[in-house]
Amino acid sequence: MTDSESDSSAGHRRRARYRGTHPRRFEEKYKELAPDRYPELVAHVKQRGMTPAGQHVPILVEEVLAALMPAPGERGVDATLGYGGHTQHLLERLRPAGQLLALDADRIELPKTEARLRQAGVGADELIVKRTNFAGLRSILDELEWSDGVDFVFVDLGVSSMQIDDPARGFTFQCDGPLDMRMNPSRGLSAAEWLSRASISDLARVLAENADEPFAEFLARALDRQRGRLGTTGALAQAIRGALPERLGEEEIDRSVRRVFQALRIEVNDEFGVLELLLRALPECLRSGGRAAFLSFHSGEDRRVKKAFESGRKSGLYSSGNDEVVRASLAEQNANPRSRSAKLRWVRKA
Ligand SMILES: C[S@@+](CC[C@H](N)C(=O)[O-])C[C@H]1O[C@@H](n2cnc3c(N)ncnc32)[C@H](O)[C@@H]1O
To answer: pLDDT at residue 259 above 50?
Structure first.
């Protein structure tokens, strides 16, 4: 290790050293976090079916492109920029003369993604990036004077690998960190604040409605007894594990921990509320013949997308769409485990 490697740009702070041969903690994975300097290591991590720290592998790319059919000169929206994987593929199809508007609510990851794309040569004329919630898509199109709408809208719901992997964001129970979970940490309540204010019945409702948690009532009462002591992801995970009977076994208990984290994330980001707003505005955002494709990752999201698309097709708003949901191939599921729960639905505006 050289001195320059060990210095951080923010005032010569020493980089976290890891014990053993393989770094486990996010902040120790400095090689994966610098893919330009360590391309072989990053390729090796990908080959093992893992996503390198600080990156996100785009899911169902070919299937998304087949549904959206982006063509040169068209105008489209990627409502969830993330690491920019889908955006890059969409841009390739839009050249020459096409334009893509990319949105993301995340003020931490968005500037990094935009800088990476610009460095790769993506121009301001072909890609417009805005940090905002996709719920307001219709008014964003008006601001851009794209009032007649766009040829396609793509939405890849949920959180990115970068958000999950970074313990400072509080999305994961795998590492300890502040219990935050906000996609935009400067707005609204953190998950810890929400938990400290929620009534037992609010908590039980959120666990049941947002994640189908079978022990919702029981866990709501157990977490209420820990009120004020759930400021970190570790404390919350421990409280859930400590409350559930041991006879359930480690795997079942882990599933509950995962569901409680999912339920809280959905609540603090109002994920179902903003998804419904977008689905309602979608027909007014598309030109005639315009396409929309949504990737969802759990039943609460997919139910809403399916219902909106089915009712739009019944009323004649949409002329076509997929009857059978599109899933990742086994090869993709093996290469990228995060694709296992992905469901793709698309529609075309009449
Ligand atoms: C699954 S990731 C997208 C990954 C991306 N397709 C790629 O290839 O890298 C979802 C992204 O959507 C963002 N997001 C989630 N809900 C949002 C919302 N309501 N408005 C804007 N961005 C949102 C998250 O911050 C996250 O970066």
So the answer is: yes
